Amino acid sequence: MKKAYKIGFIAAALALCLRPAAYAAEPLKSYMEIKDGRHLFIKTYEAVPDEDPSGLKEEPFELDGFSYSFLDMEKDEIISEEKRMETQTKTTESQNNDVSAILEQLPLSIDYDKDGFAGKLLLDSDSVSTEVKGYTTQTYTVRDSIMLRGVSNNDISLVPKTTVKNGVTLKLTGVDWSVGTSAPVDYDSVPMSYNGVASYSGSYTKKIPTGYITTAKYSGEVLNRTVDSVVYTVTYIGVEVPYTIFGDSGNGGIFSIIILWGIVIALLLGAAAYLALYHNAVIYVKDGETTQRIGRKRIKCDNPIVDLGGYDVAGKAVAIKIKQQTANKLFGRQVKTIADGGYSFKCLVDKQNGDFWYSVTVPERKEETDGN
């Protein structure tokens, strides 16, 4: 009988060890949680940004009487930031050097995106400067006229050959004569004097700016955001597996018989341990800086539950010590703690060769109100 039990135990252990890993990296943490009445098993992994997370999703698995299947996956990026000051110069062209008009052409800010850094640079109004882009030569014509009155003869030699207007010397281009006064001679009218309009013309050149160039500086803080790693939270939802003792015929039936014999032996050994040590868990309640023992409980190894019902622990921190002998048997298994009001909590026994301690905080009871 003992040999059959050992064979069944070894087969079960090999099945767990040979199960293929879904992901190369070990999870940062794994824990159970009961939320809204649902049994959840949660694993978190840290990966490099370009790593494919599809391998994190595991095939359905069984644990502590529940069959867990994939529910969802959440992604949380771990980001580092680097800041620095940047300055850029922007130029614009205009036809005049009107400062107010030029400032209207300049944007108040510009976007920066270079070498992984990005941000907005703001205009430094004190840095705005304008200079001439270039020059061209323009020729201008100046004209003038002089009224001539009472000239004795309409001879152009009697008219000044030049005149000056606005600093420009103008040359005589022609005279328009008319009779000023006349006298009768032998029944003819003979001109005695003349009037005239003398026309003058000249030119000058001037250098004209072809346009203006305005330079302005933009400064500001830019930011480089780098994804260092990604944390994935994978959640599985559990459904309780109906417990059956006998399997189908064939290998499954033989395996079930082996397990059954193992259970019988485990029960016998458990009964002996029960008689040797009935109370294998001690319950303490924390009150400020002091800790007070409030009772003892027996934890069954086949269904490890600590029932706090009947103790006044609502809203209090409770510490539970599982004695060494029982803790060794429960190593790698979940211990369930329950209390009044539907509270439930699972803790993984991860210590051997010593007493195992863990603590829970029981929520306050919700007051029931009369609907009348």
Describe this structure in words.
This protein has helices at 2-17, 99-105, 251-276, 324-329, and strands at 29-35, 38-47, 61-63, 66-94, 109-114, 117-151, 162-165, 168-185, 188-240, 281-287, 290-297, 305-307, 317-322, 334-339, 343-348, 356-361. It folds into three domains: 2-78 and 229-245, no CATH class; 79-228, no CATH class; 277-361, no CATH class. The two termini are 64 Å apart. Strand 1 (29-35) and strand 2 form a beta hairpin. Strands 1, 2, 3, 4, 5, 6, 7, 8 and 9 form a nine-stranded antiparallel beta sheet that branches. Strands 11-10-13-16 form a four-stranded antiparallel beta sheet. The protein has four helices and 16 strands. By secondary structure, it is mostly beta strands. Helix 1 (2-17) packs across helix 3 (251-276). 15% of the residues lie in helices and 56% in strands. Mean pLDDT is 82; it is low at 1-23 and 246-250.
